[in-house]
Amino acid sequence: MKGRSFVAGAAAILALSVVGTAHAASAASFATNWTQWGFNAQHTGYNPSETVLTRANVGHLVTAFITPLDPDYFYDGLGGDPILAGGIVYVSSSENGIVEGINGKTGAVTMDDGACGESTSDPAFASGDIWVGLDDPGVARITTSGVAVSCINFTTCCVVEPPSAGDGTVYAADGSSGTLYAINATTGTLRWSRCCNYYSSATLSADGGELFVSGGPGGGYVYALKAATGTVIWSHFLDTCGESSIAVSGSMLYVGGCNLYGLAAATGAIKWHSTMLGPDVMTPAVAGGLVIASAPMGASYQGIAAFNTTTGKRTWFDNVDVADPPTIANGVVYVDAEEGLSLIMLNSSTGAQLGSLAPPSGSYVGAAIPVDGHVYVNTGSALIAYKP
Q1: How far is CA 2 from the centre of its chain?
Q2: Would 21 be classed as within a structural domain?
Q3: For residue 235, what are the β-bridge partners?
Q4: Does some domain include residue 54?
Q5: Residue 35 lies in a domain
Q6: How many CB atoms lie within 10 A of CB 63?
Q7: How far is it, in rounded angstroms, from Cα 137 to Cα 174?
Q8: What pLDDT is stored for residue 23 in this prediction?
Q9: Who wins on pLDDT, 118 or 44?
């Protein structure tokens, strides 16, 4: 997954069916879109456009709105991350096929639709539509109006990995055979599929020419594939913990596993690795010359830490109990802690805590997304927006 990779059974695609048409997103009320988990196709977890939320004001955030989610919304550890496109925040349910759209300024519900099957993953936004993994299995394509629904059907298990989107293609990995699928985001037709290395969510290179995925029999591998064909360029075994999904920045790949690794994107060669966090290191975020990663409670080095992108030297560390990968915007790191009972904000350069928030009920699930002066978090029963 975005935090951990997975291992499951075997099979391949037998059928592909598409119904419906794409519709454009609503007029943008925000300047920035957070189109998928990890912000972008490189899954850096970093919003470079944020200017309203600052190190000075995140310690004084107030509630902008709390919107209860559909009563049938269900979270079981899959999904949970919101995305934002065209000023609308979208969340999907681990079960019950729920996909909701919520106005990012007002909190008003704009759509609440079934996903032609049991939804399992975080949503992604591509070619004007919402895409979400299904337990049916396959991928649902839903218009932003919530009216027309298209189903791209696989014959194996559920798509538990959140779809990734970039350069007109949606990438989805199923949870049984570990097959990776590349789908034309405009037409919904299959570009190619590659079986059966238990691939995680695909991460696109900055130039769009390569995909990087973790997986392999038993986990522990990192692969580079040609984005156009799915042909493997190189593969590299790292360790036995099973690797996280990958963050790409410049010519480097950053991936968690037993340790945190920095790899050369061109060859997969290990440039550095650090044993100062982990094991079970989740997908890192990358910004400002730092790789910021987290490891869950019970790890030898549990908590959150920052590392130099070039050398791998650890620059700060906090052993707080964390549950999800971090996100970064304008020098602030956001991560949920204490089993989701607290959202903490840290100075990305020093690790100093700038503030914390507690949900009015329940606990935070998935990553917080900071966009255009708002921080959006899911509690599993409500979407909460905070602002300065």
Answers
A1: 5
A2: no
A3: 223
A4: yes
A5: no
A6: 12
A7: 8
A8: 32
A9: 44
Question: What gap in Å lies between CA 333 and CA 61, rounded to an integer?
Answer: 14
CA dist 91 and 73 (Å) reads 10
DSSP three-state, residue 58: helix
**Which residues, in sequence order, are CB contacts of 118 under 8 Å at separation 6+?**
95, 96, 97, 134, 135, 136, 158
Please identify which residue in the block is written with the tokens 């014959």. 155
Chain centroid, CA 195 distance in Å? 22
| CATH number for the domain that contains residue 117 | 2.130.10.10
Percentages helix, strand, coil for the chain, rounded to the nearest 5? 0, 45, 55
Share of the chain above pLDDT 90, in %: 68
Spatial distance between the Cα atoms of 321 and 296, rounded to a whole number of angstroms: 6
In the chain, the number of structural domains is 1
Q: What's this model's pTM, rounded to 2 decimal places?
A: 0.91
What is the SS3 assignment for 279-315?
CCCCCCEEECCEEEEEECCCCCECEEEEEECCCCCEE
CA 78 to chain centre: 11
Task: Tell me the pLDDT tens digit for each residue of 123-138.
Answer: 999 999 999 988 877 8
Give the distance from CA 27 to its chain's centroid: 24
137 upstream amide cis, omega within 30 of 0: yes
Report whether pLDDT(8) > 70.
Answer: no
The one-letter amino acid code at 270 reads I
Q: Quick check: 311 and 344 in contact, CB under 8 A? A: no
Strands of the sheet containing 290-295, edge to edge, are: 285-287, 290-295, 303-308, 314-318
- Which two three-digit tokens encode residue 288? 């400002």
| Within-domain flag for 178 | yes
Contact 360, 367 (CB under 8 A): no
Pairing of the two strands 149-153 and 138-143: antiparallel
In one-letter notation, the amino acid at residue 92 is: S
Beta-bridge partner residues of 260: 256, 274
Q: Label residue 300 by pLDDT band (50, 70, 90).
A: confident
Domain boundaries, position 119: 46-387
Three-class DSSP category at 60 = helix
Identify the DSSP state of 119.
B
